[in-house]
Specification:
heterodimer, A: 604 residues, alpha/beta, ABC transporter transmembrane region fold, 3 domains, 6-stranded mixed beta sheet, 4-stranded antiparallel beta sheet, 20 helices, disordered N terminus, B: 627 residues, disordered C terminus
């Protein structure tokens, strides 16, 4: 069973590497071929070098023994040594440069694909824990990982060429020596490979969890909001000690693993030494029998040593590839993640209705995943075009989920949402999203320039200053922006040499971004939670004008603000419990009334 | 001079990581360096035998040298593996020592410094860069030490023919070394120059992969715009690097030409000497191999020292610059208190002594405790900013007083709190807590305060940690923690976790994620559990529904009894319960007094209150009538 599992795993890893290689070749045919060529030449240099040296000493030996000066042979030998050196430098430079270029292009391509994919996957992908981890690992494509993988791949090719070259030198002298080397090669590679699998398992099962926790504590120790808490709660000692403990734990695991590693290497090395001893004696007998020159003897012993150490390095490179296998596999799997089709049947998606008329929820239920409880249960209501609807309810009552369904972020698990009489499910999700603009509860503080941060609400108009200025004045940010050093081109982060906004200002900016987009439906999740009372009231009083007849849904915790809505939807435990105007709901003295009274008593 | 000092300092770190281990690593690497020379020398002895022996007894004559060669190999392998182990040990120990210093450093810097973007960057560069130090730099340094020993040995063998031969090879590479240094310097300079671009790139990419932003990316469809922006920045920055690599790389090749000519020259010179016939055959063969090896090894040395220089630039400069940043005075004592080995004992004492006292205080809470806070003409401006965020603040908060601070967004409320907590130092004026100046020792206030920040932390750790962090001394007392959870309104969260305080919160370690409101309840319980004499709430109700908001206010009123409390809120509902309301506008106190008095004043506060209350009042009256 285990073996079976492992096989599929390795198969997937191999497939993932092939994917990357194919991509590289497809995108950069010329440079990949060039690099391949250069790698082969680079690999040929060491054996050529040692052969040329052997050639030189052999000529010296003949000269000293026979006394005949074959000057031209000596000169050829020296010239070839120097030539090989020169070639090596040039090839090295060329391959380093090509490698950098390929890194730049291919990593960029992979990175761009990851970013594109992150836009294209279904939103629920971000909620699932396994996929979240996968995304997190795929994210490492932005570091040095890909470069190291490439490095190992090329180095493996180069080493094969090098070893082949050495073997050719050995074969020239004797087949026996080659055969002996071969005999030892197989068990030592097997030993090493088996060890790396164990090594991998230790890393994956024991070390990774410890290091993940350690890294979390490292983040806590360097995070700004944590700093404020750790000062007043005097947490530093505790966090530091826990970090230290985890660090020591990881250290112990690493050292234990290294010790095992060393033991294996030692066995392999002993095998190598035995081979060396045998071949040395054979070579000695060859010299005595005058099958080879003394100079060749030195050359051959050196070659044997090099073959052995090169193969060590070669196995090491394979191990790197193996180690990074899981990561590459995650990356490729992420890139190959299917983009969920909008609808289950094959029908052509319908056009979004030109007039909304009404939005209807028919028994809509929703859960985030099979394991989760229902977030919405049989919600039904009808909203007319141009109405403003306030959604209220306690934390966790399903308000935000409702907003997400409306915005086309998720599809209902059961029931249907209709707009202008057309089922959401019959529309393209993209199309729905195009018709909705939003301020989400955790609105993103886009720390680029002011212009971008607002203009990205409609990225086609990100340079349209007239529109941007218009929405800015609507949300009352114009005086703030006028005070900024570079006005609309000021970066909203001190990291990028700009300024930092306050929470309230950010919220207004999010509102401005929402207004940038010309959409018939607005959804706003607590759009005023960070505003001060005056600003909130001002925004609310102008709210309807800004909405400009668009159908609007807004979630609020400040019950008082719900009054400005045409109708109020009260949520409780995933159900829509009340729906009506403020007056109606106050009269029936239900849930809304209770919440209202509770908040009003603070102002009584 | 500076470089020299840095190197000494790096060595000192090695010493701190373990003097024995470091010495062993160095010694083993040096011993290993002898092996190639020894091998060559033994080979020479061996092939000398070939010339003289008769064919019958060759085996016996050759055997001792073969045996010696194998012994050398064998010991080399043993030493190498031993060295590997010590090196791994050294690397891990060094990692620990340096990281510990980095984290301790963060504890000795003031908040003002800590939150500055420059500091954060340096911090993350030091930490990220550290991996390079133990991964690359240390390994390379030891390799170079080994290679240098090899080079010396080889020179010794070659010098028997003529002293000048190895010298030419070594000197010939001097231009390469210089060019390499230049290369590294300009690469480093370019990196520094492009730092902001890198940061924007990584920020943009973070936005695109972030869970919270994913909805906005989808609704506004700005993903493509961001990807384009990222691609543009990437190709510009990487292009710059590639250009330098190509330009300086070519230059490097030219200098390598010089090196090559030197090598060719020395080879010819050697050959000339050999062909004279003064040197024996065996020696000649070995010397040629020695020279070729010398060239190879020396190349390595030069290349490696180039890498060392590169890593050194990138890592060591950043690291030491970070560790040398100015520290704030008066923190050392605090640190010592917190990070001493005897901490456990102190803790235990406190726990046993504290238990009874805490209970009493929480139960009756009648005695007027609390702290007295005085702001004397305090002004504050952010470093580098011209405008004062706070101007001439005069404030006296008595023991047991409840003060509410209100004001528009950006009026300086949060800054005031940060000053009070000793995170910022006033530009002028002074702040005292119980008559002790905060500038001298900000820990005066830390010891007595519980804070609920606007941007409280969601620790993705166990519930026990999330609550217990508020009272570290008793973090292992699970009953106490459980009581705290119930008492301070986080019982709903506890229920979600099947009443198990050891369960993780948040997705990082496989716990379920909580809603914003639930997180806030956890943070509230954390703030309250210690029962401090000073309570600070910085906009605590932003994410709460009306029910939870009321609960929090009621809790606050209950638990702050007899204590000094400061609350910042936009929701004025609670203001009536405050002894005093302070209205901030543009960094100045414009109004001050009780709720009733300020309403009578008909000033800023009156305006805010009536506007906000207007949303509730009429209907509230109606509501009560019906009830």
């Amino acid at each position: 069973m285990i073996w079976h599992h492992r096989h599929t795993h390795i198969g997937r890893v191999v497939k993932s590497y092939l994917f990357i290689l194919k991509l590289t070749y497809k995108k950069q045919k010329l440079h990949t071929s060039l690099l391949f060529l250069l790698t082969i030449v680079e690999g040929l240099v060491p054996p050529a070098y040692i052969r040329a040296t052997g050639f030189l000493v052999e000529s010296i030996e003949s000269y000293l023994l026979e006394g005949t000066a074959k000057t031209n042979i000596l000169v050829y030998a020296i010239l070839s040594i120097i030539g090989i050196f020169l070639l090596q430098h040039i090839v090295q430079f060329g391959s380093e440069l090509t490698r950098s270029y390929l890194n730049m292009k291919v990593s960029a391509e992979l990175q761009r694909q990851v970013l594109n994919k992150a836009q294209a996957v279904d939103l629920s992908y971000f909620d699932r824990e396994d996929s979240y981890n996968k995304l997190h690992r795929a994210n490492q494509v932005f570091g040095n990982k890909i470069i190291n993988i490439y490095q190992s791949m090329f180095s493996i090719c180069a080493t094969i060429v090098t070893v082949a070259g050495y073997i050719a030198i050995l074969l020239e002298a004797s087949v026996v020596i080659f055969l002996i080397l071969l005999c030892v090669l197989v068990p030592s590679i097997y030993l090493k490979m088996r060890r790396s699998r164990e090594n991998y398992e230790v890393h994956y099962h024991d070390l990774t969890p410890v290091e993940r926790e350690r890294d979390y504590y490292e983040r806590l120790l360097t995070n700004v909001p944590v700093y404020k808490e750790r000062r007043v709660f005097r947490l530093f000692g505790l966090l530091h000690d826990r970090w230290l403990h985890l660090q020591q734990q990881s250290r112990a695991l690493i050292l234990k693993n290294t010790a095992k590693e060393i033991r294996t290497t030692y066995y392999v090395q002993i095998l190598n030494i035995i081979t060396y001893a045998i071949t040395l004696i054979i070579l000695c007998s060859f010299v005595i029998m005058q099958r080879i020159q003394i100079a060749s003897f030195v050359m051959l012993t050196q070659t044997i040593t090099r073959v052995q150490s090169d193969i060590e390095g070669w196995v090491e490179d394979w191990r790197t590839l193996y180690r990074e296998g899981l990561y590459v596999q995650d990356l490729v799997e992420f890139l190959e993640e299917p983009i969920r089709e909008r609808r289950k049947d094959d029908q052509q998606p319908m056009e979004f209705p030109s007039a909304i008329h009404s939005i209807q929820f028919h028994d809509v239920s929703f859960k985030y995943s099979d394991r989760d409880p229902w977030s919405l249960a049989n919600v039904s209501f009808t909203v007319q075009e141009g109405e403003t609807i306030a959604i209220i309810g306690e934390n966790g009552s399903g308000k935000t989920t409702l907003i997400k369904l409306l915005a086309g972020m998720y599809a209902p698990t059961r029931g249907k949402i209709e707009v202008g009489g057309i089922d959401y499910a019959k529309l393209n999700m993209e199309d729905i999203r195009k018709r909705v603009s939003a301020v989400f509860q955790h609105h993103t503080n886009i720390q680029l320039t002011v212009r971008e941060s607002i203009g990205l609400g409609d990225s086609e108009h990100v340079h349209d200053m007239k529109r941007i200025k218009q929405v800015v004045s609507e949300v009352g940010l114009d005086s703030v922006i006028a005070r900024l050093p570079d006005q609309y081109e000021t970066y909203l982060s001190r990291d990028f040499g700009g300024v930092q906004l306050s929470g309230g200002q950010w919220q207004r900016l999010a509102f401005a971004r929402c207004l940038m987009k010309d959409a018939p439906i607005l959804v706003l999740d607590e759009p005023t939670s960070a505003l001060d009372p005056l600003a909130e009231l001002k925004l609310l009083s102008e709210f309807k004008r800004m909405a400009g007849g668009r159908t609007t849904f807004f979630v609020t915790h400040r019950i008082g603000s719900a009054k400005i809505a045409d109708r109020i939807l009260v949520m409780d435990g995933g159900r829509a419990v009340e729906f009506g105007t403020h007056e109606e709901l106050m009269t029936i003295q239900g849930r809304y009334h209770a919440l209202f009274v509770q908040q009003a008593k603070w102002y009584a | 001079m500076k470089t020299y000092r840095h190197v000494i300092r790096l060595i000192r770190y090695g010493w701190k990581a373990g003097p024995f281990i470091m010495m062993m690593v160095v010694a083993l690497n040096m011993l290993l360096g002898i092996a190639p020379t020894l091998e060559l020398w033994l080979t020479e002895r061996l092939i000398t035998e070939f010339g003289q022996i008769d064919r019958e007894k060759w085996f016996i004559l050759v055997l001792p040298w073969v045996a010696a060669l194998i012994v050398v190999k064998f010991s080399a392998v043993g030493l190498e593996q031993l060295g590997e182990w010590f090196q791994a040990n050294f690397r891990e120990s060094l990692k620990l020592v340096i990281k510990r210093d980095i984290f301790r450093k963060t504890h000795r810097t003031s908040y003002e410094q800590f939150e500055a973007p420059g500091y954060q960057n340096q911090l993350s560069r030091s930490i990220d860069g550290m991996e390079g130090v133990y991964g690359g730099l240390i390994f390379q340094v030891f390799k170079v030490i080994e290679a240098l020993v090899v080079v010396i040995g080889l020179c010794w063998i070659i010098m028997k023919v003529h002293w000048a031969v190895p010298l030419i090879v070594l000197l010939g590479s001097l231009p390469v070394i210089r060019a390499q240094t230049q290369f590294n310097e300009s690469m480093y300079a370019t990196d520094v120059e492009q730092t902001t671009d890198y940061r924007v790139m990584s920020y943009v990419r973070g936005l695109l992969l972030n869970k919270d932003a994913s909805m906005e990316v989808r609704i506004f469809g700005f993903g493509d715009y961001l990807i384009q922006k990222w691609s543009r920045l990437r190709s510009v920055t990487y292009g710059n690097i590639l250009r330098i690599e190509a330009r300086l790389g070519l230059k490097l090749i030219a200098y390598k030409g010089v090196h090559l000519v030197a090598f060719g020259g020395s080879l010819l010179w050697l050959l000339y000497q050999l062909l004279q016939g003064h040197v024996s055959l065996a020696e000649s063969i070995v010397v040629v191999f020695a020279l070729v090896q010398l060239q190879e090894r020396w190349e390595w040395c030069v290349r490696w020292s180039g890498w060392i220089h590169e890593d050194y630039n990138r890592l060591v400069k950043d690291l030491f610059a970070f560790l040398d940043l100015e520290e704030t005075k008066g923190r050392d004592q605090v640190e010592k208190q917190e990070v001493t080995k005897g901490r456990d004992q102190v803790e235990k004492q406190e726990v046993t002594k504290g238990r009874g006292r805490d209970r009493d205080r929480l139960m009756n809470g009648d005695d007027v405790g609390g702290v007295r806070i005085r702001f004397d003409d305090v002004s504050f401006a952010y470093p580098g900013a011209e405008r004062d965020v706070l101007k001439h603040i005069q404030l006296d908060i008595r023991e047991g007083e409840k003060v509410m601070i209100v004001g528009e967004n950006g009026s300086g409320k949060t800054t005031l709190i940060k000053l009070l907590l000793g995170f910022y130092t006033p530009s002028s004026g002074s702040i005292t807590v119980n008559d002790r100046d905060l500038r001298e020792d900000p820990s005066v206030v830390w010891r007595q305060v519980s804070v609920l920040y606007q941007d409280f932390v969601r620790y993705h750790l166990r519930l026990r940690d999330n609550i217990g962090f508020g009272h570290v001394e008793r973090i292992d007392d699970l009953t106490y923690i459980r009581e705290g959870v119930m008492k301070y309104g986080a019982d709903q969260v506890l229920q979600r976790l099947d009443r198990d305080v050891e369960r993780y919160l948040g997705p990082t370690f496989g716990g379920g994620d909580l809603s914003g409101g639930q997180w806030q309840k956890v943070a509230t319980a954390r703030a309250f559990i210690r029962g401090s004499e000073l309570i600070v709430l910085d906009e605590p109700t932003a994410a709460l529904d009306p029910n939870s908001e009321s609960e929090l206010y009621e809790q606050f009123i209950e638990h702050s009894h007899g204590k000094t409390a400061i609350i910042i809120s936009h929701r004025l509902g609670i203001a009536r319960f405050a002894d005093r309301i302070i209205v901030l506008k543009d960094g100045e106190i414009v109004e001050e007094g009780s709720h009733d008095r300020l309403l009578r004043n008909r000033g800023e506060y009156y305006e805010m209150w009536t506007r906000q209350a207007s949303l509730y009042q009429r209907e509230a009256a109606q509501g009560t009538e019906v009830v």
